[in-house]
Amino acid sequence: MTTGICRNAGCANARDAKPIERYPGPGEYCPECGDALEPLAPAAAAEATPAPAPAAAPAAPFGGLTALEALAQFDAGAAAAEQPAPAQRPRKRVALVAASVALAAVAAVALLRPTAAKPPVVSNAVHVCRSSLTERFAADVVRAYADKAGIAPARFETARGGSCDVRFSAQQVAKGGDVVGHDGIVVVVNPANPLTRLTEDDVRLVFSGAITDWAEFGEPPGRIVPIMPPTASDEARTLAHTLFAQGGAAAGVRRLASSADVVRAVVSPGGRGTIGLVAFSAAVPAKVVALAPFPAPSSLSIGDLRYALSVALTVESASHDGAAAGLAAFARSEDAQAIVLRDGFVPKRGI
Q1: 43, 75, 188, 315: which could form a disulfide with 331 (CB 3.0–4.6 Å)?
Q2: How does residue 281 score in pLDDT terms, banded at 50, 70 and 90?
Q3: Which parts of 172-264 are beta strand (E)?
């Protein structure tokens, strides 16, 4: 069983250094406070939970020592002894020397064994840039286009920066020809939370640190734990120009690596008091909260841009490389709209 330990100083599980069963998904978070669990090393896990006594192992050759250690021990003993060595010692020394030679031979063979070949460097690679919201979509489009065009996938290199032959991004204002789909930023809470609606001001006050208790919204008292993606993400940049235009999120807001990570923390057993800001495409299985006075976030309200925090997914290319231009054209084509839907986005013409 894999175990972990909570490092949140304010959590009872952390104060008690209590080992907690850790499993993929919700089990990666502390059930008491919702913080990510730190995996326990095998040695630490053994100290926390007594292990059954190991079965008796067969005696190791040379009294548990390696051949070289046994030989060194033998030499030290022989030098200190004043009496001649018993008759059987030369035979033992020969055996030890033979074992040492065998170990050296094995090491030499390992050194001479050829290493795995490095992947070939593609001199005419197409550089594909993607952002936090378009990362999976860009990868799926590249695979589909490479398969359709009969181009080796290694021809395309994807990254979040550098020079770009093709750029996948999320923008609030975009040219119609570059738009391939839509997404939005939504408020999510734990499914056990009865809250269904907040105002923009409510969300600002929570994420600025002005409101810290659920009792302010008529819920049972409890600390509110706001969570959102990092400052360099599409989600945070969109919020900086919309919801947080008059003031950013407080320093105490928890930042996780992606919208998917935020959702996992919110729906975890310890996520009852959390509230997150995430991409609509990643919101399931969290509970989406309506943002008054706008229409509730949905494929319809995001697709026709009535929802306040809608964003457009775009694909741009200024490269004259045939593979780059072909990839951008494929991403804008009707064939790629099936990928848009499959990845949880709203198609460019809405639903």
Answers
A1: 315
A2: very high
A3: 179-189, 197-199, 225-228, 254-255
Determine contact, residues 70/96, Cβ cutoff 8 Å.
yes
Please state, as a whole number, how many other Cβ atoms lie within 10 Å of the Cβ of residue 46.
Answer: 11
Handedness of CA 102, 103, 105, 110 (dihedral sign): positive
Q: Mind listing the pLDDT tens digit for each residue in 73-121?
A: 544 544 444 444 444 444 555 454 455 545 555 455 445 555 555 555 5
| Closest by Cα among 268, 285, 288 to 276 | 288
Going by C-alpha positions, the residue among 320, 298, 317 that lies closest to residue 309 is 298
Q: Is 319 helix (H, G, I), strand (E, B) or coil?
A: coil
Confidence class for position 6, pLDDT limits 50, 70, 90: confident
Distance (Å, rounded) from C-alpha 138 to C-alpha 261?
A: 20
User: Which is more confident, 63 or 151?
Assistant: 151
Cα separations (Å) of 271 from 141, 193, 224, 240, 262? 34, 10, 10, 25, 10
CA angle (207 as vertex; 294, 305 as ends), nearest 5? 25
**DSSP code string of 8-73:** -TT-HHHHTT--EE--SGGGGB-TTT-PBPEEPPHHHHHHHSPPPPPPPPPPPGGGG--HHHHHHH
Q: Could you give the CA distance from residue 191 to residue 271 in angstroms, rounded to a whole number? A: 9
Higher pLDDT: 176 or 191? It is 191
Tally of residues, the chain: 351
Burial (CB count within 10 angstroms: exposed 0-12, middle 13-18, buried 19+), residue 76: exposed
Report whether pLDDT(327) > 50: yes
**Relative orientation angle of helices 322-332 and 135-149, to the nearest 10 degrees:** 110
Does an H or E element contain 119, and which? none
Q: Is the peptide bond before 285 cis (omega within 30 degrees of 0)?
A: yes
Q: In sequence order, which ranges of 84-172 are alpha helices (DSSP H)?
A: 89-112, 135-149
Can you read off the two tokens belonging to residue 64?
A: 């548990």
CA distance 247 to 76: 75
